[in-house]
Amino acid sequence: MKFHYLLFFAAISVFTACKQQEKVHHYIKFNKAEELYQFLKWSPEKRYPLISAHRGGPMPGFPENCIETFENATTYNPMVIEFDIAYSKDSVMVIMHDDKLDRTSTGKGEIGSYTYEELQAFNLKDDDGKETSFKIPTLDSVLSWSKGKVLLTIDLKRGVSYAKVIEKVKRYKVESNSIIITYTANQAQEVHQLAPDLMISASVQKKSELKRLNNLGIPNNRIVAFVGVSAPDKELYGYLHEKGITTILGTMGNIDKSSIANPAKNVYYHLVNNGADILSSDNIAQAAEQLDKFRYNKKLSSANIN
Fold first, then answer.
1. What are 123-180's pLDDT values in tens digits?
2. Rounded Cα–Cα distance for residues 68 and 191 (Å)
3. With contact defined as beta carbons under 8 Å apart, do 266 and 290 qualify?
4. Whole-prediction pTM value?
5. Alpha helix positions (H), 120-184
6. Phi-psi domain of 57 (left: phi exceeds 0; alpha: psi -120 through 50; beta: other)
7. How far is CA 252 from CA 28, 156, 190, 277, in A?
8. Picking from 16-25, 109-118, 161-170, 209-218, which range would have the lowest pLDDT averaged per residue?
9. At what angle do helices 185-194 and 207-215 cross, to 10 degrees?
10. Residues 6 or more apart from 16 whose CB is under 8 A from it?
11. SS3 281
């Protein structure tokens, strides 16, 4: 009898340990585009700073631009997922940053030299060069996965058609959780003319750039302002916030490196306290810890976050 009790308690201990190791996912959900518009319309009362996982948040065992990596990122914080689209030889839109396969997969050479079926022979590698069992995903699979889980910022590599990407966004009905990245005012104008209902990430590093976007017919309520990869002065944040515009600051690069070298400085906490709303980062674990602290201290919450 004693032996059976020992087995029972051992089983309970194993079950409890497994439950404790289960990762909790933090999802963002917008049921319709109007909810996304309201979430991104900046106000001091409704503000909810977020992390954008640059290339999906790669880390050891999790390659960049991979659905498994996107899912892992949501265990740290509610996430904006930034990813890159390229074409295969047979014009399938796949998720890949580089023109060549060598750095991030077991393949060699130009991604455009292989059909999608041929690309499936390769495995993705993490940033340390370690091979995983994960495959290069399609845009279709990412859009299908994303609904009710994350907010997307969609980056197109050279030659990829905005019109074709927008067609996919509409087909999968993910207008309510998609933001299209643009780099020039003319690109932003093209996206807005193709899909006036879509949110656009546009470069606004000075006031004149917002005025140009407005003159091209793009209203403030469709703009998320990318303010660069170094923190602007608070005047620019104030100018954009007064117009209800949410900002994205790119911390990938020097800011991330500074935070890793000096964790006690709470770099990400101070960046959002000074006006950044979304931090596009490669260092999501540390950023998540500091944004959790910031939101707790400021008593910030959102009905769209589970």
1. 999 999 999 999 999 999 999 999 999 999 999 998 999 999 999 999 999 999 999 9
2. 29
3. yes
4. 0.92
5. 139-146, 162-171
6. left
7. 22, 18, 27, 15
8. 16-25
9. 40
10. none
11. strand
Structure token pair of residue 204: 């606004």
> Which residues sit opposite 179 in a β-bridge?
153, 199
Distance CA 153, CA 50 (A): 13
Parallel/antiparallel/unpaired status of strands 50-53 and 278-281: parallel
CB 165 within 8 A of CB 138: no
Pairing of strands 151-156, 199-203: unpaired
Which segments of 160-204 does DSSP mark as H helices, in order? Answer: 162-171, 185-194
Query: What is the C-alpha separation between 98 and 102, in angstroms, rounded?
Result: 9
Fold (topology level) of 36-96+138-297: TIM Barrel (3.20.20)
Question: Considering only CA atoms, which of 144, 153, 154, 94 is closest in space to residue 124?
Answer: 94
**Amino acid letter, residue 145:** W
pLDDT tens for residues 10-40?
A: 444 444 344 335 789 999 999 999 999 999 9
Tokens, residue 21: 């190791």
Residue-range domain boundaries for the chain: 36-96+138-297
Parallel, antiparallel, or unpaired: how do β-strands 93-95 and 79-87 relate? antiparallel
CB burial of 262-271 (b: ≥16 within 10 Å; e: otherwise) equals eeeebbbbeb
| DSSP summary character for residue 136 | P
Q: Which two tokens stand for residue 137?
A: 């995903």
Q: Is the Cβ–Cβ distance between 63 and 95 less than 8 Å?
A: no
Listed in sequence order, the residues at least 6 apart from 300 whose beta carbon sits closer than 8 Å to its beta carbon are 47, 48, 49, 294
pLDDT digits (tens, 9 = 90+) for 184-204: 999 999 999 999 999 999 999
Structure tokens at 281: 């980062």
Structure tokens belonging to residue 38: 């309201």
